[in-house]
Amino acid sequence: MNKVSKVILTFIFTLGASVFGLALYAMVGMSAFTLIQCSSGEGGIYIPSRVCEYYLKDYRLNQDDIEELSVGGLDPILNLDNEIFKYELATVLINKGLDVNGINFYYADEKMDLTPLHAAIIEQDVKRTQFLIESGANMALTSNSLGNKTPLQYAHVLYQEQQTDELNTIINLLTP
Fold it and tell me: What's the pTM?
C-alpha cells in the first residue's frame, strides 16, 4: 500500500469516526420522543433511522424516558406513520411501564382527557383499537370530554352519526 492510499484510508476513517461521534452526541441530547421520531424516519432528522433505532432500543428507554413519554401517553407513538415500527415500539414501551391507558396531556389546554382507546375510536382505527385491547387497555374508563362515555358507549354514539364499517368492527371488538 503506497503513501497516498494510507492517507486516503486515514482520512476516510477519521471522517467516519467524526460523523459517528457527532451523531452519537446528537442522540444523547435528544428527548425520548425526538429519538423515537428519528427511529421511525420522521421528524426531519438527518441521522439514519436504523442508527437511532439501535441507540433507542439498546441504550435508552430507561425510566426517565418512560416518565417523559407519560406526558403524551401512547397516543403520539401510535400516531407515527411507520405502521410496523409504531406497534413494535408501543409494545416495548408498555412492557417497560408506559401506561396503556395514559391520557395524552399534550391536549390539556383543550381540556381533553382521551385515553388512547378513545382516540382510536374517534379516528375509527380498527388496527389501533385491536392493538390496545390486546395490550390490556381498560375498556371501562370514561372520558369527561366525551360525556363520561366508555369507549364502547362512545363508539355507539359515533355509529349513530356515521354508520361506517370501521365503527361496526370496533363496536364488535369492544363488545364483551
Answer: 0.83
